[in-house]
């Protein structure tokens, strides 16, 4: 969604909004250019669904806790190299991101991602959002989809809430 002409622009949200409106001029988009932290995230209290397209676990944990606190479903995806993962968190029903990753993985300043991986995981996240908003189908709740595009490996595994999860135990 970002073109050569956008190189050097700091504000990805505006660039994205411009492209989406060129695809469909009848949609309404409110974009925010901000760093997500414990305070700024409160802008998203009215959301019907939250979608994790983040590149770091620090912010991902903030989003996870916000989703549980505000009782908003959260679609999580993560990508690195050829590998991706996807799950949908329904507050008070399913395990959360902190149940799945209790310890923060080491922060990497740079990591490789093959372009099609973002396309695949992004489309799968969009499908999860459509399912949540329409009630059609079964979201990946309590399930983790693991994808390795190098070998075209797709597998779904179940995972459970951790009894000692510091986030779940705070809200449920
Ligand atoms: Zn949890």
From TrEMBL:
Molecular function GO labels: nucleotidyltransferase activity; thiosulfate-cyanide sulfurtransferase activity; ubiquitin-like modifier activating enzyme activity
Keyword terms of this UniProt record: Nucleotidyltransferase, Transferase
Source organism of this protein record: Candidatus Methanofastidiosum methylothiophilum
InterPro entries: ThiF/MoeB/HesA (IPR045886), ThiF_NAD_FAD-bd (IPR000594), Ubiquitin-activating_enz (IPR035985)
EC number: 2.7.7.-
Protein's recorded name: Putative adenylyltransferase
Residue intervals of the THIF-type NAD/FAD binding fold domain: 4-165
Alphabetical list of PANTHER family matching this protein: ADENYLYLTRANSFERASE AND SULFURTRANSFERASE MOCS3, UBIQUITIN-ACTIVATING ENZYME E1
CDD domains: ThiF_MoeB_HesA_family
Superkingdom of origin: Archaea
Keyword Oxidoreductase in record: no
GO cellular component: cytoplasm
Claim: Phosphoprotein is one of the keywords in the record: no
């Amino acid at each position: 969604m970002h073109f050569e002409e956008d190189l050097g622009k700091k504000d990805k949200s505006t660039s994205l909004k411009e492209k989406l409106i060129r695809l469909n001029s009848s949609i309404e988009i409110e974009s925010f250019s901000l760093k997500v932290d414990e305070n700024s995230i409160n802008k998203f209290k009215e959301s019907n669904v939250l979608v994790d397209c983040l590149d770091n676990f620090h912010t991902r944990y903030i989003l996870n806790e916000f989703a549980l606190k505000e009782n908003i479903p959260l679609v999580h995806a993560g990508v690195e190299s050829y590998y991706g993962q996807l799950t949908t968190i329904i507050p008070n029903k399913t395990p959360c991101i902190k149940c799945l990753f209790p310890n923060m993985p080491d922060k990497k300043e740079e990591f490789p991602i093959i372009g099609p991986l973002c396309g695949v995981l992004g489309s799968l996240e969009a499908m999860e959002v459509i399912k949540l908003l329409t009630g059609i189908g079964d979201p990946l709740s309590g399930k983790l989809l693991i994808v390795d595009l190098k070998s075209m490996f797709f597998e779904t595994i179940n995972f459970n809430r951790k009894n000692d999860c510091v986030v779940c135990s705070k809200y449920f």
